[in-house]
Design goal:
Two copies of one chain form a homodimer.
Chain A: H1 6-18, E1 23-26, H2 28-34, H3 39-49, E2 56-61, E3 67-72, H4 79-89, H5 95-107, H6 113-123, H7 125-128, H8 133-150
Helix pairs in contact in A: 1-3, 2-3, 5-6
The first copy, chain A, binds a DNA duplex through helix 3.
Keywords (chains A, B): DNA-binding, Repressor, Transcription, Transcription regulation
Family (chains A, B): Belongs to the CtsR family.
GO molecular function (chains A, B): DNA binding
Chain lengths: ~160, ~160
DNA sequence: ATAATAATAGTCAATATTAGTCAAAGTTGG
DNA sequence: CCAACTTTGACTAATATTGACTATTATTAT
């Protein structure tokens, strides 16, 4: 619980700010300096932890006065996001990315914890356990899309 | 009785820590070094002694700052039903039989209606949609067994 | 206005740091 | 001796870190 990697720490820091405000605007170099990492690590953190799968939308601008803006999006009032997710999943998805999506659904209260755990169990790496991982990802995508579509129903 | 094997000793050590806390996070290499065994032996200990049947859920992460987390979970009172169902399913199950099992779980109040519908969606014929139905039934069995094992947890 | 320069952020691939899998070899109790 | 369990290690997979190079935007000089 103590010696997490620096990416996790940066993630946590950013999310703690986002807990209070709908969005934040950071200067990449400042955050990098603050945590003593190379600037591109900030891109890594964003790319792995602040994607639309995670329920975030990121915009940025380069040049003088450049910034990276991270905004939280809500899956509940935004049916478009559900469509976006399905679109994004496409034909194939890894176990890790699927986990991110399920976590987002839980955070946005579209799934209870038990529901999330059950759904996760169905598409876990060790559950599907295909020799051909490419095919496994295809099947996982079908399962996840099926779950997302099911969530459109009222009950 | 005195000189038990090293796997038993590692098991006992981990469980002694878990007696005080709900979960622990270990670094595989550290534990391996501490007991002077190869790292993969830690996996063996976990796989044989920290199963869901024993009331443990294990998560891990690789890469820098990686860890293995072992958490205690509360098991439901009657796991016999689950054991029997898992036995019944075996290696393969059709969509129809799976539906029957999910329905019975709903009637036994092990699943809410929404949970049942979600789980059904994941293993529906149109979701899995394998060309090779024999293989589809095998995968469905793995999914359903995984769900049943998840249901052992009270929370 | 245009060109040069400065100030940002982005990409990508090499390397490092973990954990997981699997099967062969060893051990032990019956 | 046999079957089940344990130990080992080579190979694989996932994740994180780093830095050189690129792209974009703003500012300054001409």
């Amino acid at each position: 619980m103590q010696n997490r990697n620096i990416s996790d720490i940066i993630e946590k820091y950013l999310k703690s700010i986002l807990a209070d405000s709908q969005q934040i605007e950071i200067k990449r170099s400042e955050i990098a300096e603050q945590f003593d990492v190379v600037p591109s690590q900030i891109n890594y953190v964003i790319k792995t932890r602040f994607t639309i799968q995670n329920g975030y939308v990121v915009e940025s601008k380069r040049g003088g006065g450049g910034y990276i803006r991270i905004a939280k999006v809500n899956l509940i009032d935004d049916t478009d996001v559900l469509d976006q997710l399905i679109d994004l999943i496409g034909e194939s998805i890894t176990s890790g990315k699927a986990l991110q999506i399920i976590q987002s659904l839980y955070e946005d209260k579209l799934l209870t914890q038990k529901e999330a755990n059950l759904v996760l169990a169905t598409m876990d790496r060790t559950t599907l356990n295909f020799a051909d991982k490419r095919l496994e990802n295809v099947v996982r995508a079908r399962i996840l899309v099926s779950v997302l579509n099911r969530l459109r129903c009222a009950d």
